[in-house]
Amino acid sequence: MKPREIRRGIYxxxxxxxxxxxxxxxxxxxxxxxxxxxxxxxxxxTALIDTVDPTTEQVLENHLNELEVKAIDYLVAHHAEQDHSxxxxxxxxxxxxxxxxxxxxxxxxxxxxxxxxxxxxxxxEDKETISLGxxxxxxxxxxxxxxxxxxxxxxxxxxxxxxxxxxxxxxxTTDLYVTDEGQVYEAAKRYYAEIMMPFRTIIQKNLEKVKxxxxxIIAPSHGPMYDKPEFIIKAYHGWAFDEPKNIVVLPYVSxxxxxxxxxxxxVEALAQRGVTVKQFDLTVTDLGKLAIALVDAATVVIGTPxxxxxxxxxxxxxxxxxxxxxxxxxxxxxIGSYGWGGKTVEQLxxxxxNLKVEILQPVLVKxxxxxxxxxxxxxxxxxxxxxxxxxxxx
Length: 394
Ligand code: FEO
Description:
Blueprint: E1 4-7, E2 10-12, E3 15-17, E4 22-23, E5 27-28, E6 33-35, E7 38-41, E8 46-49, H1 57-66, E9 74-76, H2 82-85, H3 88-94, E10 99-102, H4 104-114, E11 121-123, E12 129-131, E13 136-141, E14 151-155, E15 160-164, H5 181-196, H6 200-210, E16 217-220, H7 230-241, E17 245-252, H8 258-272, E18 276-281, H9 287-296, E19 297-303, E20 306-307, E21 310-311, H10 313-325, E22 331-338, H11 344-350, E23 358-359, E24 363-366, H12 371-390
Parallel strand pairs: 8-9, 9-10, 10-11, 15-16, 17-18, 17-19, 19-22, 22-23, 22-24
Antiparallel strand pairs: 1-2, 2-7, 3-6, 4-5, 7-8, 12-13, 13-14, 14-15, 20-21
Helix pairs in contact: 5-7, 5-9, 6-7, 8-12
MU-OXO-diiron binds next to helix 2.
């Protein structure tokens, strides 16, 4: 893509990464991603907002060449993670007078991660401004969107909020702005679940903070821009503030069919009681889909056989991830089959200390499930349906 002008003298100069399929060697990217960088020309100074992943730094450089950018005065680094900061050293080399603008915490992290010399920095406090002449940048500290050092930038005259990871989506698209809201909603929710949800209460505070600004465009550093910002702000409000819904998420793994039989019965039992169930086979599921489902769920029930006296490793992985991303769950339980004994329940329960959940009576079955076991599953389904009703989860 060529650099594209958003407003007079303001350009998208980042890179689209169509083929990337994994982020942080962990997060699936079914739709690729982009590393958005923005050039803002003022009457006196020029600023570059974030850079790009180092694998695509030539794209950024080509864009700056095409625009014949002779000088960059300020390089705004919202976030020290390398998908935005990784090309800073190359830009600083090319523009020897450029200064990196960032929070004090970000400065330390950029020195640690990228060995940038100390004299290349200007640190900014919350709400501090810098003039580009006829344009003004206001820096707003928004910690934990995604790391502790993060901030966003408000371009006052054009009312554009440059938000970096905040409001972003891993989505490769030629569209400058959101055109397919359904597609972007899912991609942004996936992003929220994986990146923002662990810090939900701080995200709430940051949402309150940006509410004070009149925003015409949100320009994140991943995915398309929002020319109708209320779409993504409303979505974030729902994800961060709303009570959980009448949903059970059921990640499971089965070795010889006993646990699968229990899962099938249990899903039916919950559905008959009006509970929505989202079932995931952990041997094949996209973990991002599981993370999305956890955003709204009131209850998680893990289905696992007992292997070598404990839960199946796939169930361990799912429990570890759920514990790390801290969804707003209220209840949890475990169902599954064992051959002769083990510590499946104790081990799984000990793995989710971050989840402030009530553990409901697990259903562990010796061998293939029998009539009494199906009754126990009915009982667990009934308990969940009642608990959701009592809490008003709809
Ligand atoms: Fe897009 Fe946290 O980096």
